[in-house]
Amino acid sequence: MKLVSQSQMREMDRRTIEGGRPGLDLMEVAGRGICRSLLARVFGAPVPAPALAPGLVPAPAPVPVPARGQAPGPCRSGRTSRRLDAELPVWILCGKGNNGGDGLVLARLMRERGLWPRVLLACAPEELTGDAAAQLPLAHASGVLIERPGAREWAAFSRLGPDAVVVDALLGTGLTGPPRGALAEWTQRIGESRARILAIDIPSGLSGDDPSVPWEVPVRADWTVTMGLPKRSFPFSPMRERTGPVDMVDLGFSEEVIQSVGWDAEIPEPCDLAEWLPGPGSRSHKGRWGRLVVVGGSPGLSGAPILASRAALRVGAGLVRTCLPRGLTGVFDGALLEAMSEALPEGEDGQLLARGAEDVVSRYGTWDALVLGPGLGRYPETERFVMKLLGSWRGPLLLDADALFALAEWGADSWVPRARDVRAGGEPGGLVLTPHYGEMARLTGRPTEEWSGDPIGTAKAWAERWGVTLVLKGAPTVTAAPDGRAWVNPSGHYGLGTGGSGDVLSGVIGALLAQGMDGPRAAVLGCYLHGRAAELGSRGAKRSLLPTDVIETLPEAVASAESAELPEGWRWRWV
């Protein structure tokens, strides 16, 4: 599922219309999708899959109407309406542009089905622009009540309760600054309403590009129906909480148009990830399931390599060898029976010595992948160990935690290319960096305030600059490949914001690298499995999730991905 910027969406619209598709046709398809979504979300009406007619133009699927008295379906907020009847209170607030035109199509379709929507225009009728102006007489002809609100109408609006639906068709994605004047007042009224809020394309006042909500916006939708493709800001907080679940209307853009315009990132779907999972094939013994080396550990941080190693085994790595300071091998062996330990030389403070890097390469240089960093500690000698290993390991390599700290101290811009060149001939992107936002700021020398509003663009730029697979950990995580592709992880849980979660993720991705996956796919699939395991391990809890809970449900997460079924709570749906 592709994520696009506002400008990319506008360009797809423009090229489609220039290719002979009338704008009124696109608006009609949009209105039908919105109507299907509204009836499905509020009344539980079935939503038929949007069939494509020749030429990739969505066929005008009929909009189902639930039987009178049919039990409604729940929406995001948990509020439901009592029953469907001719007096269902649906208020559609329309602006003067295409967003308002979509609202007028919705009103006409509802009226044609025996419902009585009420339209409030935010402009004089003669101020409607483009295709929206052409929709006004059609809505009038169908019997829709269209008004310019005054005190009486706003008083009635303020009395709307949770039975009602308010449709935000004011602004769409064309806004470049905060709403002003009358529109600011209208968005304030929507935000204060107790009714369920359906936003068309995007909640008014927000940006499809920037998830940070840089100005005060009162609108918080119960759900959003977006046109064409979801916008790049939608998966990120606080935008994610403002849009609610997202229904998507296929406008029938041709593949040629989509490919020529491009997109910013993708959201991997279970049906795609199921094809990526390594299959059993001819793997008849442990060596063929991938041999992974994990290097980490220091006094007080012995749990980190244990978590990474256990996670790797849970995802199916055939062999895991964990290299750590000699003084920690007893702790490790007692905590994890299934993995093998390797004692490396340690200094007076129990830290790894630089000469231990030679032992790792000489003994395990032919193994399939290496995870470097969990619990290493921050010692000058350990930094030298990291840089020495970074310059000599030739296979797939993942850097996390204190290995990233060492890399930042020595200069990522100079050392990452060296490590990449050492691995010349390997898979592009086989060097995987997994920083969280703080580590990313240290690696790049750029404070988070400079780039946190554009995590997709940031991850893509640095992945391409360094020639690596970059996993920018956050809520959600963005993975970028050196060739410009990017993915936004759709799975996860609040409880992952806990110490040790990153070590688990490193072990999962490392296991997939060891099983032969290239860097980008291993990272994307690993992030999804990690987040899905957290969802399964939480069992409804938000604050008590432990990294070990995530590890224990990893096999269940793998099985879930293999089934290719959408997990419960999946927030993206085509209508």
Automatic annotation (TrEMBL):
<feature type="binding site">
    <location>
        <position position="436"/>
    </location>
    <ligand>
        <name>(6S)-NADPHX</name>
    </ligand>
</feature>
<feature type="binding site">
    <location>
        <position position="502"/>
    </location>
    <ligand>
        <name>AMP</name>
    </ligand>
</feature>
<keyword id="KW-0413">Isomerase</keyword>
<comment type="function">
    <text>Bifunctional enzyme that catalyzes the epimerization of the S- and R-forms of NAD(P)HX and the dehydration of the S-form of NAD(P)HX at the expense of ADP, which is converted to AMP. This allows the repair of both epimers of NAD(P)HX, a damaged form of NAD(P)H that is a result of enzymatic or heat-dependent hydration.</text>
</comment>
<feature type="binding site">
    <location>
        <position position="204"/>
    </location>
    <ligand>
        <name>K(+)</name>
    </ligand>
</feature>
<feature type="binding site">
    <location>
        <position position="99"/>
    </location>
    <ligand>
        <name>K(+)</name>
    </ligand>
</feature>
<comment type="function">
    <text>Catalyzes the dehydration of the S-form of NAD(P)HX at the expense of ADP, which is converted to AMP. Together with NAD(P)HX epimerase, which catalyzes the epimerization of the S- and R-forms, the enzyme allows the repair of both epimers of NAD(P)HX, a damaged form of NAD(P)H that is a result of enzymatic or heat-dependent hydration.</text>
</comment>
<dbReference type="GO" id="GO:0110051">
    <property type="term" value="P:metabolite repair"/>
</dbReference>
<dbReference type="InterPro" id="IPR036652">
    <property type="entry name" value="YjeF_N_dom_sf"/>
</dbReference>
<keyword id="KW-0521">NADP</keyword>
<feature type="binding site">
    <location>
        <position position="201"/>
    </location>
    <ligand>
        <name>(6S)-NADPHX</name>
    </ligand>
</feature>
<feature type="binding site">
    <location>
        <begin position="473"/>
        <end position="477"/>
    </location>
    <ligand>
        <name>AMP</name>
    </ligand>
</feature>
<feature type="binding site">
    <location>
        <begin position="172"/>
        <end position="178"/>
    </location>
    <ligand>
        <name>(6S)-NADPHX</name>
    </ligand>
</feature>
<comment type="subunit">
    <text>Homotetramer.</text>
</comment>
<keyword id="KW-0630">Potassium</keyword>
<protein>
    <recommendedName>
        <fullName>Bifunctional NAD(P)H-hydrate repair enzyme</fullName>
        <ecNumber>4.2.1.136</ecNumber>
        <ecNumber>5.1.99.6</ecNumber>
    </recommendedName>
</protein>
<dbReference type="InterPro" id="IPR029056">
    <property type="entry name" value="Ribokinase-like"/>
</dbReference>
<keyword id="KW-0456">Lyase</keyword>
<dbReference type="InterPro" id="IPR017953">
    <property type="entry name" value="Carbohydrate_kinase_pred_CS"/>
</dbReference>
<dbReference type="GO" id="GO:0052855">
    <property type="term" value="F:ADP-dependent NAD(P)H-hydrate dehydratase activity"/>
</dbReference>
<keyword id="KW-0067">ATP-binding</keyword>
<dbReference type="InterPro" id="IPR000631">
    <property type="entry name" value="CARKD"/>
</dbReference>
<feature type="domain" description="YjeF N-terminal">
    <location>
        <begin position="9"/>
        <end position="259"/>
    </location>
</feature>
<feature type="binding site">
    <location>
        <begin position="98"/>
        <end position="102"/>
    </location>
    <ligand>
        <name>(6S)-NADPHX</name>
    </ligand>
</feature>
<dbReference type="GO" id="GO:0046496">
    <property type="term" value="P:nicotinamide nucleotide metabolic process"/>
</dbReference>
<dbReference type="InterPro" id="IPR004443">
    <property type="entry name" value="YjeF_N_dom"/>
</dbReference>
<keyword id="KW-0547">Nucleotide-binding</keyword>
<dbReference type="GO" id="GO:0052856">
    <property type="term" value="F:NAD(P)HX epimerase activity"/>
</dbReference>
<dbReference type="GO" id="GO:0046872">
    <property type="term" value="F:metal ion binding"/>
</dbReference>
<comment type="similarity">
    <text>In the C-terminal section; belongs to the NnrD/CARKD family.</text>
</comment>
<feature type="binding site">
    <location>
        <position position="304"/>
    </location>
    <ligand>
        <name>(6S)-NADPHX</name>
    </ligand>
</feature>
<dbReference type="Pfam" id="PF01256">
    <property type="entry name" value="Carb_kinase"/>
</dbReference>
<dbReference type="Pfam" id="PF03853">
    <property type="entry name" value="YjeF_N"/>
</dbReference>
<keyword id="KW-0511">Multifunctional enzyme</keyword>
<feature type="binding site">
    <location>
        <position position="503"/>
    </location>
    <ligand>
        <name>(6S)-NADPHX</name>
    </ligand>
</feature>
<feature type="binding site">
    <location>
        <position position="168"/>
    </location>
    <ligand>
        <name>K(+)</name>
    </ligand>
</feature>
<keyword id="KW-0479">Metal-binding</keyword>
<dbReference type="InterPro" id="IPR030677">
    <property type="entry name" value="Nnr"/>
</dbReference>
<comment type="similarity">
    <text>In the N-terminal section; belongs to the NnrE/AIBP family.</text>
</comment>
<dbReference type="GO" id="GO:0005524">
    <property type="term" value="F:ATP binding"/>
</dbReference>
<feature type="binding site">
    <location>
        <position position="375"/>
    </location>
    <ligand>
        <name>(6S)-NADPHX</name>
    </ligand>
</feature>
<feature type="domain" description="YjeF C-terminal">
    <location>
        <begin position="269"/>
        <end position="561"/>
    </location>
</feature>
